Give the backbone structure.
Amino acid sequence: MPASLVQPDLEFKANILRLGAHDLSACYQCGTCSVVCPIATEANPFPRKEMIWVQWGLKDRLVADSGVWLCHQCNHCNTYCPRDARPADVMAALREYSIGHYAVPRFMGNAVSAPKYLPLLLAFPAVILLLVLAFLGHLSALPAGTIVFSKFMPIPYIEGIYVAAVGTAVCSAVLSGLRYWKALNKASPLPGGNSMATPLRSTLRDIFQHKVFQRCAQRWEDSRETYKTNLRNTHLAIFYGFLGLVVTTSSVAIGIYVFHYLTPWPLWHPVKILGNGSGVAVLVACGIFFSSRLTYGEKAGKNSYTDWLFLAALGATVLTGFLCELFRLGGAPALAYPTYFIHLVLIFFLLVYLPYSKFAHLIYRSVAMLHEAQGEVSHMKTRHFDSNASS
């Protein structure tokens, strides 16, 4: 085999350290991390190989590696590492780097991950909404009479702004996911001609049932504390809570435009119950995550700016939604309308910047899981063919 020259990317290593990775020189490649990982496989034994590659500064290999996203940060590797190299923190930093690397446009990935740009990111939707309110004359005087949020910010304006903005974000997310998929295929080519139906069903089943998180909950022999006891349940609460809020919003839009059933809807309405229940689920899960990070600190894993930003944005969005409802029912327009404005700004922040925040896990982890499932199907077919040929 011809020799190849390894050229480490020192800037890449510096960026990974800046994103919260531990001392990269601490790892001495004992392999404990891959042994104790409940979800690493013989064919893809992460995070050991990722620890080697990041020590060598092999950026191109790492950004095209499925193991970075297949890791669900159960913290087993951190707990059992004899050198306290904190492999889970390194993997989390690599995921954060990957989001910026594949972001479309790339400058947005850098902006969302840097605290100095937060005022600008919030100011952008705020200025747009303020211009609309100024045009409507609602900056100087709030709508009179019963509190109806559509009188303050008419629905056609909201639909026009948010459909365009979220549509752009969806396009960016698709392009980013495709870039990652191409990189995975280049690094680990899949044979052509195989159907995607079986891998897609398997991946969706794993996502909706959180099967991988369930495997992450498995305890090792001496049952050391990983500080991730509620990993699956809290992720399920956020996942289905957020999904319930999306269904609620979509149902309200259908009710308005198709059935001309205008808001506000009564609290006993099934859609309203779904929205409130979903919001409670998300708030409780965010509270657990906040409490865990504050109580255990680094023991529970890496705590970076993007981690806190995601939790804060998600929690604040749901909380302001509840406050809007509370102030409306209490007949306090001076509180209800400004809170609704803040709620709209936070919704924009959460959804439009999704491809560049920690929410981008929805994109990249799903792509990595689909690629892995497709590889497993191809491997099983190859083994079946070889078995038949040998017999």
